[in-house]
Amino acid sequence: MPKKSEVTVEDKLRALYDLQLIDSRMDEIRNVRGELPLEVEDLENEIAGLEKRLENFNQEVSDFDFQTKEQKNKIEVAKEEHKKYEENLKNVRNNREYNSIVKEQEYQELEIQLAEKRIKEFAAKKELKLEAIAQLDEKIGERKKHLKAKKGELDEILKETEKEEALLGKKASEYQEKIEDHLIEAYHKIRRNVKNGLAIVSVERGASGGSFFTIPPQIQLEIASRQKIITDEHSGRILVDPELANEEQEKMNAIFNQK
Fold this sequence. Notes:
Distance between the termini: 27 Å
Low-confidence stretches: none
Strand order of the largest sheet: 2-1-3
Number of helices: 6
Helix content: over 70%
Structural class: mainly alpha
Strand content: under 5%
Number of domains: 2
Mean pLDDT: 91
Shape: rod-shaped
Number of strands: 3
Radius of gyration: 39 Å
């Protein structure tokens, strides 16, 4: 393969135009996919967020169970203490001891009441959280069903275009081998700056494709001579003559039909 510097300007123009036709075809393929890839990604992120929330909810339920168990243990301890003080009442020697033991019993009774109150609160919170978990489970199920459908659509499209994209990618690499890096960079820069991604257009009715600005006859002759890279002064696009454009379009149509 000749060095890039040894390739003629005409060959570079043809390679650039071929690259443009390939990129335009790739743009069409991506347009067929539309927003599907983003929709799939958004759904996957949403499901991940919902599942994380579900994990947190389940942890909260486990915490309520643990705290309930702790309160039940407190009740058992308080009952044991109360029972012990009940035995001590049988051996009191004076009113002071009696009052002291009775106060301890009252304290244990309050502990039991407080623990029972907390158990009811935890039960109520747990019930609400279980309802939220059920709703969240249902929502996750719906989202996963939706994701499966969207992935199915996307996979079908990818399956249909996979072979063509591989072929186009291979051809694009071949054409880029004929073009200097600075021209490739300029080409991609122009593509980024124009709405339709057309960095290279042919002259149509005396103007650059898609433009109403007339190109001077002398410039049109220079474009047709294919001796140098010429850009449109208004849009910045690289210009080629109609004959070259038609020839390359026919050639690339044959390649596109190999899919």
